């Protein structure tokens, strides 16, 4: 290890101001800090600091997505062979899935990180770790058969217009991974919706509709069992199908305290309550679908655990997080049931609430300010 | 016993190097008064190099508040004026003659005082700067009438000295000091104690003050916490505060007529070989405490605690308001894949490191930043260690954009930089929050005056 450190120290001057490769300073710094936690010491304020940094935070989120990712890979293979009417072993399923999913991950990271590095360099910043998570989330919310060039365009759009134009990680208004998905959804609907795309290299005769797709056209008899949907043996985006695996990820995020339980719990609560309201109304078959179905179908669980909880784009006050999460859940189910054009409402619900989160925060903070002013008035009057 | 104010949010960082309950005399030759200790003070010198001084001899005054003078803590000779960049005055160094003589300010019975005579005496002797005010944490303005005065009998910071130990033998002076303080306010004097860090028995006999009890982790000892629970500050309010040692010094001034700047100082930290208490004086040079008494590693010497203290050199001086010296190792090393390894043995408030498996372990923490500066990303984290009805991140953003109205509305008067120390420690974005808050407070102070 010492030799590596020596090598880095020797190369460093070339990448600093005045060096030959100073235009790669951010990239070099990014790689160096990836290998080594820097030797910076505290100069102001508290003399000791927590061992956690942004890299640690982000890597924990990436770890939390891994169960969903690996199950997703297996399921891509499983659905493929199922549609052909063949049975395949675990490794065969896994292998086929990996061939489909790994290129998606590579493209997502290569394009996204490339743009991140470029922006860090022209701004003279250190490289933000935010994309480590975004780059993993994007492959999990796209269909397994997505053409890679389309994905590349979507990632570029998301990173530039979803994040960098606002100032980078921490400043963005909407969740960049969902911006990528929304871009795909509206720009390339043929590759993002319908019954064809959710199973990789599907046999033509096999119905490849997701449960949500079936529900939208009133095909309720065709719905898989709740346990299949919970376990994830259904067609869908790579990482969204298995509620169980997503809940394992949720457990990691909640235990480490990185994601807010307030958001997560209230998204599920919101979706469930909306489902119950529809049950009570009962105007059509979709409304009569048991409320808990909504929580295991489609991307609801994935959105609740990994997307809505993004600390930057969700509401930032604790009370605001409850309101924000509850509305995300309600609106997602509302869109599913009411809107004939969109089978899945989660993405749009989260994006919508991302936009409204600052407004929720505004009123929560306003209440705090009013309380303070009231205390002042009581004192002045007495 | 009255109600116990329990502080639910907070964090005790457990460090190695707690001071033993043993006390020795510190043999210090040099003493210093450091104008940067006094926020907003612009010193104008009253003394020349080589002049002889006694405790209480004026050294300089504040250009903006001429009635506040700063005096020598000990007797001896004024030997050196240390300046920094732009000729800013950093230290006034006095070489002690070892006699600790004071000018005579005349003894008075605290019971028969009025506010005017008490104030005059405190100002003249240079003891006044021990009284500070909220908002802004600057030295109290003698013309104000504070709505209450807070005296902390404990500190909840890491490795903080045990003030019960300090009070022992000084009960009479402390009572006299508290009596003087009651003359300075229209309201009450609050003596604040901690359920576990203080022995409640030792506070039963203090008169003329309201004794309050707090419980919970740091920052339960911060003055802002006490004020917020007992007598919250609104816009326009002024509250004064001091610590136990300050109150004792004030008491001694009135009982004996002497400026006795002696105070008990705890030498703490993982790198100290014999952590213990010292009988010292304000501004004492720490050399004789730390020479042959610290480990061989590259160390950082801190006047104060690890959260809010000031970095000093190994031959530096105790800050005016501090009762503690902490020595911890510097952390200027690279760590290979430090962020990715499991990280057994590393300290973290978050559960992303296995530190939660050993909640009672005491750590040897160094000054490594453990990461690089980032924008605010995580939300809802700071609130876990911030026991105020204030939105810390929103307040900080208001400060960064210098929005005066918003800062005021979000409660900047109620807090001080030290209240953000824990947020700063646990922040994965490594933002220097105390500096931001201090700048915000200074901006408000200038806008409001």
Describe the overall structure.
The complex is a heterodimer of chains A (382) and B (449). Chain A contains 16 helices and 1 strand. With 382 residues, chain A is an all-alpha fold. Chain A folds into 2 domains: 9-35, no CATH class; 54-368, Ammonium transporter fold. The longest helix of chain A has 36 residues, at 346-381. With 449 residues, chain B is α/β, with parallel strands linked by helices. Among the domains of chain B are: 3-29 and 111-256, 3-Layer(aba) Sandwich (Rossmann fold), CATH 3.40.50; 369-448, no CATH class. Chain B is built from 10 helices and 20 strands. Chain B has helices at 115-125, 163-167, 171-184, 223-230, 244-256, 287-290, 392-400, 404-409, 421-426, 433-448, and strands at 4-7, 23-25, 30-33, 43-45, 52-53, 58-62, 69-71, 76-83, 89-96, 132-134, 149-152, 189-194, 210-216, 239-243, 262-268, 276-281, 299-303, 310-312, 324-329, 335-336. Chain B has a 6-stranded mixed sheet with strand order 1-13-12-11-14-10. Chain B has a 6-stranded mixed sheet with strand order 2-16-15-19-17-18, with no helix packed on it. In chain B, a hairpin with a 7-residue loop joins β15 and β16 (276-281). In chain B, α3 crosses α5 (244-256). The radius of gyration of chain B is 21 Å and the shape is globular. At the A-B interface, β1, α3 and α16 of A face β20, α9 and α10 of B. β1 (36-37) of chain A pairs antiparallel with β20 of chain B.
């Amino acid at each position: 290890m010492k030799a590596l450190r020596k090598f880095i120290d020797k190369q460093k001057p070339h990448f600093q101001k005045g060096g030959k490769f100073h235009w790669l300073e951010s990239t070099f710094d990014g790689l160096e800090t990836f290998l080594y936690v820097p030797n910076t010491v505290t100069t102001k304020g508290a003399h000791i600091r927590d061992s956690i940094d942004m890299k640690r935070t982000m890597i924990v989120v990436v770890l939390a997505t891994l169960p969903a990712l690996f199950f997703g890979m297996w399921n891509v293979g499983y659905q493929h062979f199922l549609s052909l009417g063949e049975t395949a072993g675990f490794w065969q399923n896994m292998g086929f899935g990996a061939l489909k999913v790994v290129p998606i991950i590579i493209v997502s990271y290569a394009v996204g990180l490339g743009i991140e590095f470029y922006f860090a360099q022209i701004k003279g910043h250190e490289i933000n770790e935010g994309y480590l998570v975004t780059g993993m989330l994007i492959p999990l919310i796209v269909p397994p058969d997505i053409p890679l060039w389309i994905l590349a365009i979507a990632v570029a759009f998301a990173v530039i217009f979803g994040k960098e134009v606002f100032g980078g990680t921490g400043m963005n208004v909407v969740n960049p991974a969902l911006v990528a998905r929304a871009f795909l959804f509206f720009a390339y609907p043929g590759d993002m919706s319908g019954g064809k795309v959710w199973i990789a290299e599907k046999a033509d005769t096999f119905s490849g509709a997701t449960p949500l797709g079936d529900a939208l056209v009133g095909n309720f008899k065709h719905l898989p069992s709740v346990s299949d949907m919970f376990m994830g043996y259904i067609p869908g985006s790579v990482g969204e199908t298995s509620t169980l695996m997503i809940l394992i990820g949720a457990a990691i995020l909640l235990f480490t305290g990185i994601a807010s339980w307030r958001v997560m719990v209230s998204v599920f609560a919101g979706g469930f309550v909306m489902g119950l309201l529809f049950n009570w109304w009962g105007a059509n078959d979709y409304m009569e679908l048991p409320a808990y179905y909504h929580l295991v179908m489609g991307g609801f669980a994935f959105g609740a655990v990994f997307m809505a909880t993004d600390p930057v784009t969700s509401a930032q006050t604790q009370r605001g997080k409850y309101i924000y999460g509850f509305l995300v859940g309600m609106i997602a189910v509302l869109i599913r049931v009411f809107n004939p054009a969109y089978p899945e409402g989660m993405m749009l619900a989260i994006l919508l609430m991302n936009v409204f989160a600052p407004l929720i925060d505004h009123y929560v903070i306003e209440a705090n300010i009013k309380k303070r002013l009231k205390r002042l008035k009581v004192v002045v009057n007495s | 016993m009255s109600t116990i104010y329990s502080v639910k949010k907070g964090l005790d960082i457990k460090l190695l190097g707690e001071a033993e309950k043993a006390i020795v005399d510190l043999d210090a030759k040099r003493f210093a008064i450091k104008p940067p200790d006094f926020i907003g003070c612009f010193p104008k010198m009253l003394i020349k190099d080589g002049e002889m001084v006694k405790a209480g001899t004026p050294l300089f005054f504040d250009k903006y508040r001429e009635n506040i003078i700063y005096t020598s803590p000990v007797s001896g000779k004024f030997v050196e004026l240390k300046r920094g960049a732009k000729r800013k005055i950093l230290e006034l160094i006095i070489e002690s003659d070892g006699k600790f003589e004071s000018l005579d300010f005349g003894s008075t019975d605290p019971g028969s005082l009025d506010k005017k005579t008490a104030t005059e005496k405190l100002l003249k002797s240079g003891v006044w700067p021990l009284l500070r005010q909220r908002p802004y944490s600057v030295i109290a303005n003698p013309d104000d009438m504070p709505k209450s005065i807070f005296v902390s009998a404990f500190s909840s910071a890491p490795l903080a000295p045990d003030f019960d130990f300090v009070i022992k033998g000084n009960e009479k002076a402390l009572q006299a000091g508290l009596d003087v303080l009651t003359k300075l306010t229209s309201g009450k004097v609050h003596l604040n104690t901690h359920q576990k860090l203080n022995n409640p028995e030792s506070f039963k006999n203090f008169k003329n003050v309201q004794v309050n009890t707090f419980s919970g982790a740091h920052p339960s000892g911060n003055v802002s916490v006490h004020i917020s629970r007992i007598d919250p500050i609104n816009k326009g309010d002024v509250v004064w505060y001091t610590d136990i040692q300050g109150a004792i010094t004030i008491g001694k001034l009135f009982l004996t007529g002497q400026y006795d700047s002696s105070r008990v100082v705890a030498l703490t930290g993982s790198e100290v070989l014999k952590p213990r208490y010292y009988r010292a004086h304000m501004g004492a040079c720490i050399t004789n405490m730390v020479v042959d008494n610290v480990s061989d590693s590259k160390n950082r010497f801190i006047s104060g605690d690890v959260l809010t203290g000031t970095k000093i050199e190994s031959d530096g001086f105790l800050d005016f308001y501090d009762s503690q010296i902490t020595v911890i190792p510097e952390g200027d090393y690279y760590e290979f894949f430090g962020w990715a390894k499991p990280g057994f043995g590393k300290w973290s408030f978050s559960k992303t490191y296995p530190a939660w498996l050993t909640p009672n372990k005491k750590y040897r923490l160094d000054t490594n930043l453990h990461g690089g500066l980032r924008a605010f990303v995580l939300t809802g984290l700071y609130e876990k260690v911030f026991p105020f009805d204030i939105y810390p991140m929103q307040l900080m953003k208001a400060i960064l954009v210098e929005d005066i109205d918003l800062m005021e509305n979000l409660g900047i008067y109620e807090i001080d930089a030290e209240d953000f120390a824990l947020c700063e420690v646990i922040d994965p974005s490594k933002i220097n929050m105390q500096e931001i808050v201090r700048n915000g407070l200074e901006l408000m102070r200038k806008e409001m005056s």
